[in-house]
Amino acid sequence: MNRISRRQAMVVAVSAVSFAVLAGQPVLVRQALAADFPAAAQAFIERSAAQARSEAPQAKASGDARVRFARLFAQSFDVDALARATLGSRWTALNPTQQREFRTAFEAYVAKAYADRFYTYAGQPMTVVAAEPAANGQVLVRTRVQMPGSANQTPVDWQVSQIAGAPRISDVTIDGVSLTRTQRDEFASVIQANGGDVTKLTAMLEQRSR
Q1: What is d(CA 127, CA 50) in angstroms, rounded to the nearest whole number?
Q2: Which of 4, 23, 76, 194 could disulfide-pair with 18, CB 3.0 to 4.6 Å?
Q3: Mean pLDDT, to the nearest integer, of 16-27?
Q4: Are the C-beta atoms of residues 142 and 159 closer than 8 Å to each other?
């Protein structure tokens, strides 16, 4: 299987789950959360993929892709966990104000960087292979995503956590490449180039998200 670009894969992967959150979680999913989180996590991913396919045409024609994507990202993903993970050990060196500023800049940057391509790839066919318990009470939902214009299926593994009793995605591994690890490497290069100053990275993300 040909390895796709990391950013393209991330866009396809995110598009597979985000749309369903706006409609709210079904009663069966909420009930399953308490009894069997692996089953609930799988149901969340499966339902979200189906919803994405049905919503994609309307989203593409709306003209407000960035606003829609920002809302979906905030509601589908554990943004706090992603922001912390992309900074790694540098996160704890920031004071609370700096942490909030970075999180806000990170979330806005993701919305700006991925919105248009997100709606280009949204709703691609996806098959769930398994849902397995992982560390810290999380669940790893293993899937295969059909890439647009290709006969190949790309492995996409979703790390799902419970946040306030609801499933949220805390990482995505696409064709063996972790989203948080990739973004952490990119951010680390920027920080290193600026003498270890994380606030310079925050300022860069704010600029790029305008």
Answers
A1: 10
A2: 76
A3: 44
A4: no
CA-derived radius of gyration, the chain: 17
DSSP per-residue codes, 132-170: EE-GGG-EEEEEEEEPTT-S-EEEEEEEEEEETTEEEEE
175: helix, strand or coil: coil
Determine the Cα–Cα distance for residues 1 and 158; give it in Å rounded to an integer. 20
Q: CB–CB of 168/75 below 8 Å?
A: no
For residue 197, give Cα distances in angstroms to 40, 79, 109.
41, 22, 18
The residue whose two tokens read 């920031």 is: 94
- Going by C-alpha positions, the residue among 77, 15, 75, 27 that lies closest to residue 51 is 15
Please give the domain boundaries of the chain with CATH numbers for all domains.
Answer: 6-208 (3.10.450.710)
Q: Phi then psi for 175, rounded to 5 degrees? A: 55, 40
Structure confidence at residue 122 as a pLDDT band (50, 70, 90)? low
Q: Supply the mean pLDDT for the chain.
A: 81
* Alpha helices per DSSP H over 62-197: 65-76, 79-87, 96-121, 179-193
Strand-pairing partners, residue 161, are 168
